[in-house]
Amino acid sequence: MKVELISSTSGMSDAVQFGMTVLLNDHTALDAGTLGFLWPIDRQRNVRHVFLSHSHIDHVASLPAFLDNVYGSQQQCPIVLAGPETLHSLKTDVFNDRLWPDFIRLSNHGPPFVQLRELMPFQTCDVGDLRITPIPLNHVVPTYGFLVEDNRSSVAFITDTQATDAVWEIVNSCKSLKAVFLECSFPRRCRALARQSGHLSVDTFSRETNRLRTDVPVFAYHLKPAFCEEIMEEIAGIASGTMSVARTGHPYQF
Ligand SMILES: [Zn+2]
Ligand SMILES: [Zn+2]
Hints:
binds zinc ion, 9 helices, seven-stranded mixed β-sheet, Metallo-beta-lactamase, Chain A, globular, alpha/beta, 25% helix
């Protein structure tokens, strides 16, 4: 399985992502924070399915631009999959003719811009060579993490969240697990802010990582750009051979 964190910055550390997008096997995206920005349009045209974790802007900001960019270039329009609350937010907060034209209404009257599909917790979706299972997380709005599987490997993508039990039950029962990407939004000194905003700080990130029962790499991602250097130093100081900070623009193979 090919996994690539899409870069949204230039001239900064490749650990920084202003918006979240993870590309899977070049054809499926998790989140659309940066999918439609600063990234070659030919590669955008290959993306057929976009799974959204939740409605926050760092996860959906570039979705309107992406749908605009690829319009008419694919045999079928992109399919956006998300939980019911996230779909509701897209309809009322984004595609409402005020913030952006109502692509959902327009899709009923001509060549469609987008097709929406609802994701239910723990119900696996088949997308080409991938199987993707939404796992409810513990954030300030309803949010899904994703377990992504192909015939050889499984990789978990867990953001945005505080501590949660469901993730580790699923991840620890997965026999082909090859890696976990786990959010680490704040350094230790911001643990109160992390808790209030439904995120992990380095101490809770470390605690959650210790619940993993297999010896696979854990990549920290979703580092808040303002604290990126500090978080990287703190993670480097944790004595663990399996923990590191994920890099954007660097395809991983699992
Ligand atoms: Zn969020
Ligand atoms: Zn976020």
